[in-house]
């Protein structure tokens, strides 16, 4: 009888359900209000940005208020030409990030190795690359290697420089991911007779790479913008090179660089959205497994 007395009656259950529905409704309303506030704030910010480049001019007493005047005819004429470098910029980034991931895995294994030459080589590579500017590395591959009889195109030099540079930074990301895998999994794998190579390939690396996807995504987005440095070689017709070419030829460098900035911004937004979707999918997978 005492057990039955402790159980809530129908009225209590309905009251609790109504309270839960009320709390859920309030959460949804706050979420909608927040989303609306964000959209309004975006509209205000875009409006201010548009006003900044509207060419507005006003005289209030001794004070002159004016904004930036753009040549919209130039923008309409040369935007397609600058847009032609978008594909090359993305290709350059994909090739370089692929190379950097391979180097990062090798570098991380070297950093964790008990073999002194492997550890020394990985550490030296990270120290040298992280200790010198990316622009200098691009010029080294493009200008210095021909002294050794190795002549590279601007595209190849850019991919090598970006891949090697970001590989050094991604090495520490992969190393941290490997070390985050619990040692108990390695011990369990050893207990069932797996070799060190099998443990690394089948257990540790798959989990480590999954953990490194978010920071790797950030590195890829950063690389998209750093591809602009390859334009300094003068032989890679990516976004910035095209913008500089038409800007200088028509004495409209500001307009040309603004077009390039918009394209970089759009590309970054697109790949950031892709990264968010990947991270959300991974998070759902982890919740499902748990």
Number of separate domains = 2
> Number of DSSP helices?
11
Strand content: under 5%
What Rg is obtained from the alpha carbons, in whole angstroms?
A: 28 Å
Oligomer: single chain
CATH third-tier fold name of the largest domain: MetI-like fold
Query: How much helical structure, as a percent, in the residues?
Result: over 70%
How are strands sequenced across the largest beta sheet?
Answer: 1-2
Q: N- to C-terminal separation? A: 38 Å
Describe the overall structure:
A two-stranded antiparallel sheet has the order 1-2. The relative contact order is 0.10. The two termini are 38 Å apart. The protein has 290 residues and is mainly α. It has 2 domains: 8-66; 86-236, MetI-like (MetI-like fold, Orthogonal Bundle), CATH 1.10.3720. It is built from 11 helices and 2 strands, in the order ααββααααααααα. It is 78% helix and 3% strand. It has helices spanning 2-6, 10-52, 72-83, 86-111, 116-130, 134-144, 154-180, 183-191, 196-226, 239-249, 253-289, and strands at 57-60, 63-66. A hairpin with a 2-residue loop joins strand 1 (57-60) and strand 2.
Q: Any descriptors?
A:
MetI-like fold; 78% helix; 290 residues; mainly alpha; 2 strands
